[in-house]
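Treating backbone geometry as a discrete language has practical consequences that deserve illustration. No coordinates are needed to read the tokens, only the vocabulary itself. For completeness, the protein is quoted in full, as a sequence line and a line of structure tokens:
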Amino acid sequence: MNQAIAKTILDKFMNIGYFCFDKNILNLMQDFDNWELFLNYMVDAGILSAFKHEGFHITVNTVEELSIAEKNIVKLT
């Protein structure tokens, strides 16, 4: 039986953990007290943008989710 975990659809973007920065950006990070202020600056300065993925996404945070992902991996090909 093919199982899938339903994902909530949000009305805003969400980061799933991938950033690619030039190493010089590390110096700039030190000027900010928190990550949110830094990201807002980067967006406002036109330095940071996003890729909106609208395809199938499999989250694997638990052994159960891994098992479900293995059963549904064909959807990605």
